[in-house]
Amino acid sequence: MFQGETAITVDDKGRLAIPTAYRELVTEACANRLVITYNPFESGCLWLFPHAEWERVRDQVNALPNVKAVHRALQMKLVGAAALVEPDSAGRVLLPASQRAAAGIEKKAVLLGMGNKFELWSEQAHLAKIRQTIGEDEISDDMTDLRL
Known about the structure:
It contains 5 helices and 8 strands, in the order E-E-H-E-E-H-H-E-E-H-E-E-H. By secondary structure, it is α+β, with helices and mostly antiparallel strands. The protein has one domain (2-132): Transcriptional regulator MraZ domain (Chemotaxis protein chec), CATH 3.40.1550.20.
């Protein structure tokens, strides 16, 4: 559904404009309802899910037994921090200040379409991540069949 990389500017009020190329998709996929939460695996990044996709993810995460600390941490970072956002008439969404601060997202950010969700990266974290190469010793069995 979503793919591509877009440089984004976050305004002084903490809003970002959904790129025009995605606005129709966002409207169709989730009736303009997105959920923003932390990326629990990488710092400097927030996830934005279409509402229906978020409900599926939320239910899977909440189904994990919370007797394990790692499950509780995942539930806290994904479900506990989740915020429903709706684009305004100009296609802007307000990013929660606490999430912006935790991810280090200030004026400049990068929005990546990752299929079922968006990833919103701080500019610095994105540059650091994109500059890392995948080493031969990191290639998983699942990757060996790819024809890139």
